[in-house]
Structures are given as C-alpha cells and as structure tokens.
Amino acid sequence: MASKTKKIIPIEKKSTAPTKKTSSDRDMDNPLMLPPKFAAALADEVARTLVRRLPNMLPGSRSRAPKVKTKKSKTIEYGVFLDTSAIIDGRIFDVIHMGLLNGIIVIPESILLELKHLADSQDTVKRERGRKGLDYLDILKKSRKMKVMVLSEDGEKGIVKDKHQEVDEKLIRLAKNHKGKVITCDYNLEKKAAIDGVQAINVNGLANALKVIAVPGESLHIKLLHPGKDITQGVGYLEDGTMIVVEEGSSYVSKTIDVVVSRVIQTATGRILFAKKI
Asked: Is 118 part of any domain?
C-alpha cells in the first residue's frame, strides 16, 4: 500500500506589536467627541466627587450627627453702658451732647425694663423718675449724637436667664463681655465694677473733678442762703454747687458778701469750703 503523506500547513504567528486604534475605535471610547484634555479633567473631577461622597453612602454614615456651628455674639466696640441711676440723673446726656464721649451708648434690656417699671409705678416720685429717664433716652436717640442700641441678654456669657440676677450684676457682666465701660451715679456699683475689672465712671466724681478749685486765701463774692449747723454760720453755694460755710455769717443770710477761704475739706460727696467775712 502506498503510504499517505500528511500535508503540513504552516501556522502564522500573530504579531505582538500594539495595533493603532482607528478613528472608529476612538469614536467608541469618546462618544461625545470631547477634546482629550477636557475629557481627562472631567474624569478627575468625577473621581474626586465620588471620593467625597463615598463616606456618606456607606452603611451607618447617616447616624453621624452633623456638626452645628455655634454663633458667637459680636463684640461691641467702644461700648458705653449706662445704668439706671445715670440715665435718671441726666447729667451724662449733657456730656454726650457736647461730644466728649465716643463709641456706642448701650442700654441692656434689664435696664430698659427697670425704667419701664419705674414709669408704670403707682408712686408719683418713682413714676416721674422713670418717665424722665425714658425721655432722656428718646431725645438722645433722635439727636443722633451717638449711636444708641438696646442689647439683648440672650446667649451672653455669665447671664443666667432662668435664675434671679441683679440688674447691676448683669450690667457689669455685659460690660466685661464686650470690654466696655460703665457710667453710673451709684458709688457701690462703681466699686463692684472696679473689683470685677470693669472701668466705671461715676458722674458725681466727674462733676467734682470739674468744679472750680478754691485754695485757702482766695477771695470770693457769695450770697448766703441759709444758716449752717452752727447757729453762727451762714451757708452759700458756688455756681457749680460747692458749699461754702462762712463763720459768723448767720447775720448775713440773704445778703451777698465778700469772703476769704480759710480751709478746704474733701468728702466723698465733694468739697466743702470754709470761709470768713472780709
């Protein structure tokens, strides 16, 4: 038998070299026909967005409470805090109208409420004092010499709304929170504010500092208005309210005489001059 010969078919080796993409292949990769650089930038932005949102998509992520930012109270710059006694006294408003004070006049809610209670009082004297204080504030606000604001005490550090807290204590705390100064006619409030590190100006002290300084040996022309504690003394007053006690002056009451200052006494309420008739 004749042997059958097998025909060997050569196997072609596939080329391992990378094939170039045709234009149709590129169209399949970029169906929107976007520029390559823009497409790459868009892909990066999508990736970053997914990374940011991925933690919220995970199980249990919704149980995390969002952080709540607490709103801090804005500090009042150059605040001048008036207390009830200074408002009713009224002399500080003359100083304001002269332009000697700068900043913002601050009236805490508790002070305004105290004035309203006085204005609504059944007592005639208290009612007049309260109404006078409210009138002073109204005139100042309309004059626009200084900015006037009513300060809410809600959320202020050191102010306990649910507990009884004195008005003076609230005033000092508010002035300390806002690094302001207190204007008062109350001697005890002035001292308490100083202890708490708050600058306090007493209107009475300011008035005494502005009084005419008389020295022993100075001559004055004064009218005696009434007798003194001693029946031999006569008492008169300078234009700024300084008291002058004239020795042996009781017989000259209701008369204007010339006197010479013999001594000066400084008290907590002001100066007292002692004089003799020339």
From this structure: yes
